[in-house]
Amino acid sequence: MKSNVIISENIRCIIVDDEDLVRERFRIGFPLAENGFEIVGEAEDGEEALELCKQLNPDIVITDIVMPRMDGLQLTEHLKTLMPRVKVIILSNYQEFDFARKAVQLGAIGYLLKITSGHRELLDLLERARKEIELDRELLLEKIQERHRFQQSKPLLRKQFIMNVMDQMYATPESLYKEFTMLELHPLSYGFTIAYLEIDKFPELKQTFHSRDISLFKYVLMQMIEEVSSTHYNGNLFPWTEENSLCLWLHWDSAYQMEQAESQVYALFQKINEFIKLYLPFTVTSGFSKAKRISLDHGQLPTRLKEAVNEAISATSQRFYNNLGMVYTYSHFVPYHTLGEAQKQALNNSLQSINPFLDDSSLRRSLHEEVISKIQEQHVQPAQLISWLEELSKYWTANDPLGATALIDSLELVEVLQDVEAYLLRLMHWKRTVQVLSSKDHHYRIEIQDALDYINTHFHKPISVTDVCQHHQISPNYFSHLFKAQTGSNFSDYVTHYRMQAAKKLLKETTLQVQEISERVGIPDYKYFTRLFRRSTGQTPSAFREQSKIPT
Prior knowledge:
By secondary structure, the protein is of the alpha/beta class. It has 23 helices and 11 strands.
């Protein structure tokens, strides 16, 4: 084997079990993040897990055997057929031992006993899965390299030719025909359809794979599309942007083909998507235009071509309010609404009204009810929505250039409406942090301000509600109610969050060891500190420190 193995920063895992405590044990009880494994989703049964797998494209599924609707055996069978690259680890009770062995026969790489298995047993299986995943990726690259005869110039010249046609740079049909012949494009006939394809979650793909490997993946994607489409249709494929989008120009030779165009193109791209799911580590969203009738004699091509390209791009943009990895047609396109100044202000007001100190579950619910649902109802133009998020971020972080840069850079990850919700949640986390670190500027009741001052000076030691109440001679019940009303947070959650902010500051500004930082912020148990930090930030302390480094 060659040594160019692709290794992503984290191996992506989904946990499937109908018991909340079991799923929580994997989230909190096992040192997954420290060993390079990331839980990207959870499901309560096989049906829900299968849908998650289609959306999230995980590397590993850890699943219980006995579950409602679809059990672990059925899930393993489905994954073996639909997503053979995914590795399955089975969770089992003693009485389910025969089922676990059957799951292994179906393709699962191993099984764990729910109750008795510990960290070592789980990590051993995960490491085995990691080796298989890396081997799969190496084999995939070797297959790609065997077919790597890509001619880079021709597709780019074809794309430039399309742009020139739309800009009406060819005066006669003869000059057009000459270019068609030179670029080996299929000659024009009765009519055509333009399809536009975009690789989903491309910024994340770039973080996982080397640019050389991504080029190979795109080569395979283009070869796959050309092979599948050329079986029944005449057409030409070319890149539309340098990175993640393609156009396919399909030609129709008769009125009958024009009438059947929509159903035929839809079926074609459904088939293409099936191959993509089997052989490539990403999904592709496709959209296509209405069929266009042309006549070169009347100079219709520039207008019709521009219409078709714009329709195809608009059709693909429907993924924003729907799902990635789907096929969309312009005939079902619902026009977007402009995000005017009045709507922006209404959204800004809704965001300002949300308490950033709510727990994440409540924050998500408030964001959905106050902001996301309004965006969905108004069907806002996606590009304008992204611009609003950028304006909002710059305004909120005007006094925090580093925070502004980090937030705005992450806007490239926003591709669908769910990403907007995740981005706004991150923005609310930033706001909460700022408020915590500048709490002396807030006008709290004197009892609460004294308590905040006490936290500020004693957070490096064990702190309890009783300590604060004894210090300030106040009833614990009354204090807890008052603290929640004034700050929007429970006392213990506030102390934990304050410690995490202090830890982040030390990680950014010092070279102290993580163990020493955990002690300095009042959490002497290093492992517990790491779990809290991961739960608060989504990263391990070491990963956070590495990401926070400012390039020189």
